[in-house]
Design brief:
The structure is a single chain. This protein is α/β, with parallel strands linked by helices. The protein folds into two domains: 119 residues, Response regulator (Rossmann fold), CATH 3.40.50; 95 residues, Winged helix-like DNA-binding domain superfamily/Winged helix DNA-binding domain (Arc Repressor Mutant, subunit A), CATH 1.10.10.10. 42% of the residues lie in helices and 21% in strands. The strands form three sheets. The chain has a five-stranded parallel β-sheet with strand order 2-1-3-4-5, sandwiched between helices. A four-stranded antiparallel β-sheet has the order 6-7-8-9, with helices on one face. A three-stranded antiparallel β-sheet has the order 10-12-11. α3 links the parallel β3 and β4. α6 packs across α7.
Length: 225
């Protein structure tokens, strides 16, 4: 059972979300005000937040941004009627981990929450991911290779984090698209090729093999040795 905070000012939508998640065995708390939700998240620990964009007191973007600024890493699922690409990108940039447009199927809502819960259970206790010579500080979003700091852009960091969570295993290209760029992006070979090439170059060290390997016809793998 997980503790889930539903932040939604429409009672009907809130009831649908809460009922769906309670049917999955979770403990659900509902709040209809963004500022009240921020105060509650600072006082208590929740495993996932479902967050509407349009809220009284403090809107969803502002709430997510403040959470991340205060280093609160509670997974956030944005749930909003503002569903076009630009709005979804804004939600993710503000600090959302996933985005679900209204109207939604309750089965998809349950699935997306489960994915966030599973990801949160995999969060290391000290906040660091380590794979071979690569070390990632998930809280401060810093990276080192062989002890040397590496400066990454936001998408490069998300890409490396995803590969590190599956270190030693080949990750399919389509799965990378869905988890790093989001399901609403159209898959593009050139997009991922460019980002992998830039990331690989930043991680390379003289005399060492690149930690990111291309597995022809399958995907990519972050080596652990």
């Amino acid at each position: 059972m997980a503790r889930i905070l539903v932040v939604e000012d429409d009672p009907e939508t809130a009831d649908i979300i809460a009922t769906t998640l309670r049917d999955q065995g979770h403990e659900v708390t509902w709040l209809d005000d963004g500022r009240a939700a921020l105060d509650r998240l600072e006082a208590e620990r929740f495993d996932v937040v479902t967050l509407d964009r349009m809220l009284p007191g403090l809107d969803g973007l502002g709430l997510a941004a403040r959470l991340r600024a205060r280093r609160n890493q509670t997974p956030v699922l944005m749930v909003s009627a503002l569903g076009d690409v630009d709005e979804r990108v804004a939600g993710l940039r503000a600090g959302g981990d996933d985005y679900l447009a209204k109207p939604f199927a309750v089965s998809e809502l349950a699935m997306r929450v489960e994915v966030l819960l599973r990801r949160n259970r995999d969060y290391p206790e000290d906040g660091f991911l380590r794979a071979g010579q690569v070390e990632i500080d998930l809280v401060h979003r810093k990276v080192w290779v062989s002890g040397e700091p590496v400066q990454l852009l936001q998408t490069e960091f998300r890409l490396l984090e995803f590969l590190a969570r599956h270190a030693g295993r080949t990750v399919a290209r389509q799965l990378i698209f869905e988890q790093v760029w989001g399901r609403f992006f159209e898959a593009s070979d050139n997009l991922i090729n460019v980002h992998i090439a830039k990331l690989r170059k930043k991680l390379e060290r003289p005399g060492q093999t690149s930690p990111i390997q291309t597995i022809k016809g399958e995907g990519y793998r972050l080596e652990v040795e």
